[in-house]
Amino acid sequence: MSAQNVLNLIKEKNIEWVDFRFVGLSGKAQHISLPAVEIDEDTFVNGVAFDGSSIPGFRGIENSDMVMMPVTETAYVDPFTAHPTLIIMCDIFTAEGERYDRDPRGIATKAEEYLQSTGIGTDAYFGPESEFFIFDDVRFETGMNKSYFEVDSEEAAWNTGRKEEGGNLGFKVPVKGGYVPVQPVDTQQDIRSEMCRLMMEAGIRIDRHHHEVATAGQGEINFRFDTLTKTADNLMKYKYIVHNTARQHGKVATFMPKPLFGDNGSGMHVHMSIFNAGSPLFYEKGAYANMSELAIYYIGGILHHAPAIIAFTNPSTNSYKRLVPGYEAPVNLVFSKGNRSAAVRIPIAAVTPKGARIEFRTPDSTANPYLAFAAMLMAGLDGIKNKIDPRKLGYGPVDKNVYDLSEEEKKDIRSVPGSLDEALDALEADYEFLTAGDVFTKEFIENYVEYKRAEAKAVSIRIHPHEYALYFDC
After folding, report:
1. Which residues belong to any copy of the GS beta-grasp domain (predicted)?
2. Pairing mode, if any, of strands 65-70 and 218-223?
3. 462 in catalytic set
4. 428 is catalytic
5. Is there a single domain that holds both residue 93 and residue 128?
6. Is the same domain home to 82 and 137?
7. Fewer C-beta within 10 Å: the chain N or C terminus?
8. Do 343 and 335 touch, CB atoms closer than 8 A?
9. Catalytic status, residue 446
């Protein structure tokens, strides 16, 4: 879509405001709105200025002038605003006109450019499965003398005896019993369908939606894969629509990995493949799971560098409340065909040559998608370049339920980091593969680690309510 096409769309849809958006290190969207009558072709040439010093992890106040450069192909009409508004994602540049090396979207674009420069392939395709909860109520507070959270849902297992409903209607979702039940157990069919309708109107191709395993409103909507940066753009759009549709229904949606103790958390399983000029590179008929040697090496790169890339794919302290055995979270760094207990699963049901792909099951949606997808691609490409064979390094294949293996069988299997700090330690020890092609810079990684260390410390120094249960009577 050209700048002129965007200007035509503004007239056609009677747009009043144009919302320019970018994504910071946290993965959250930021925005500035301009009157549509002030938008012309120069806007797309000169960009929109903003203060980079007010964005955590960006720039100091002494050098804060930055520019959002609109990416016209990302334009779509905001389905939620009272005044007709057009949303456009942007890349970030310095005031001097250089691409900003801390811009997550710019890093994703550089990763795609690096793939093409290697001669391995032309396109990397990504398809995330981002799970979420929809609650009716959320309350939390942390302070000097109190710390708590409380969430509620009309379909939660703990509400079988609740009287406040004006007559309890039953049909609650049992713990770990929420996978694809029909109504009335699934209370959120219409909300998810509305989310899907709005996503399709915004240009996202929807595959399916359903209730997920956990009680209290866990759901999943799958959308069609695309190239790396476009998929990250779509995931930002997806989360925006999920959050705001839930709000319109008087509910609240969260992509937090582990909002409930004792039930499944929300992951973001990521499917990946590489094509060369339209031809799939991951398929070889008759090989293990019909995977080519190139695909096996890609898996080797993912598993070998997993502790480091998990600092991007699972970048919150809450991520490691989900990455524990027993809740379908893959904590063991092995690969397998069709096996959901492995960190890397190779889908084998109804797969065509063009559908041949791998699935990295560890990530969650606290990830900044631009950084996470770029890190995964760089790890996989390093595996291909250096022929990292996971079969020779103890990464499988393991075609059994990993959780059922004996201690002897599991003794040589590596596990994911147990905390955000451990993942950041791994990133500091293993980052060279990310700097190939100047995709990630050493300065960016150092800044990212410092930014995330502060989050980890903020949690670690605070008193946990369960510590009162354990130690108050000492």
Report:
1. 13-97
2. unpaired
3. no
4. no
5. no
6. no
7. C
8. yes
9. no
